Structures are given as structure tokens and as C-alpha cells.
Amino acid sequence: MDFNSLNMKQFVKDAGSALSRVVQLTEEKLGTSEKTELDAHFESLAGRSDVTKLWTEKIVGDTAAVLTPNPGNRVEDFLFEKIEKKRPSRLSNLEYLGLDMTEAGNAFGPGTTYGTALIKVGQYEQKLGAAEREFVNSAHVSFVQPLQKFLEGEMKTIVKERSLLESKRLDLDSCKNRVRKARSLLGTQSNAERDLRIAQSEFDRQAEITKLLLEGVQTSHTSHLRCLHEFVEAQVNYYANCHKIMQDLKNELSKDRPASPMVRVNSEEFDLSSTSIIDLGPAESNA
């Protein structure tokens, strides 16, 4: 028997199986055929898997949007990770702001008060940008990547095996129907019962494989919990670092801050930057 004949026979067999599954599914929807139900524990595991897939996809998408707000950059990162196996290196918006402030300060003159302030602020904005970029990379590696790997690996396998289980279930129920019909026809019952035994064995085997995969979702939850702790720790370090950078900048700027203009009212001087002059009532202002 040549290779082409084998392929044709396999094609005819697969087509026949697909047709019998369509017929079985149609009869189930019409209520004219019984359906093999899985046990309550299996259904509970399947439900938890569906919920896990749904919310993990949402969390990954939301976190990616927080870390990389620009949709175009997110698409670029996705493509680079698929092709180059790494994310592209780009400056953050804060770093661009810092660079422009520094250049503006030099253009206005580093010897001027405003130019000097712009240079200082620009330098600290670049520090903030670098801290943000470090946080984004850390959060991506410790949180987004593990969850994405789970969706593309373990969860994708679960979906595939559950789909295969449904096909085996349809084959089993189709065989059950043929056995019921064969009981009224002499000479065909033994073949139908043999097919039923094979279908039942394949269904039971696939159900066990799928159940083991579904039970592994709980282990994945434990792993994702560790990733969540690492994500929060990265946020804590990032915001603490930003706070320190801003405090240092505030202290630097306060050294060169120009004196506020003063106004004299009733032999008292008031700082125009404060609200004290505004708080004076009409009677006090006209005294």
C-alpha cells in the first residue's frame, strides 16, 4: 500500500469522525441525544481554569498598559520580544523632558538664574526617567513575563486538551447511540460495542490527562502570588526612589530660590508668595 493510499484512508476516516461529531452535537442541541456529563469535581476545576485564564489575560493587559502607556510602543515591544527575544531600549518621556530642559538651560545661559534652574531640574528629571525605566523592566520581568508565559504555555495546553476531550466525548456518545441502534439489527451489535469500548477507553484516558492539567492551575496560582509580591516590592522601591530624587531636587533649588517680593501694609512687610496679605479684612486694609 503506497503512501498516498494511506493518506486518503486517514482523510476519509477523519472526515467521517468529524461528521459524526457534528451530528452528535446537533442531536444534543435538539434534545434527541444524551450527553455524557463529567463529574462535579472536574467541572469545578474547569470553571476555575476558565476564570484564571480570563482574569490573568486582563491583569497582563492592564499591567502592560500601566508600564507602557503608549499603544504603539506596546505593539513594538511585543514584536521585538517575538522576533528578537528582547524588548527594545528607548528613553522614557521623563528622560526626554530632562534632556530638553538641560539643553534649554544651556541655551538661556548656565550663568543665569533660570538657566541654572532648568539644568538642575533637567538632570533630576533624567534621574526620574531612569528610575521609571528600571522599574518598568523589573516589573515586566518579575510579573508580566511569568503570567504571559503561563498563558502561552500551560493555559494554551489546557485549552487544547479540553478541546480534544470534547471531541472524545462526542465520539463516545456517538458510539453509544450506534450501540442502541445496533441492538435492533442482527450482526452489527458486536462491531458497535467494540467501537464503544475503544471510545470509552480513549475518553477516560483523555479525561484523566485533562484533569491533571486542571489541577496544576492551583500550583500556578501559588507561583503567580510570588510574582505579585515581587511586583509590589518593585513599586515600593520605585516610588521611594522617586521621592528621594524629588526631595534632593527641592533642596537643590531652595539654595538658589530668589527672594519673594515684599509689600508694606501698616508698617508691616508681607511676602506676596504667602496668603497673609489676602487674609487681611477690608477694615484692616484701610486702617
UniProtKB/TrEMBL annotation:
**Recorded GO CC terms:** cytoplasm
Q: Which CDD domains match?
A: BAR_Endophilin_B (cd07594)
Using the record's annotation, list all stretches that form the BAR domain. 27-262
Superkingdom of the organism of origin: Eukaryota
Family matches, as Pfam families: BAR (PF03114)
Protein name from the UniProt record: Endophilin-B1 isoform X2
Q: Which organism's genome codes for this protein?
A: Diaphorina citri
Gene behind the chain: LOC103509012
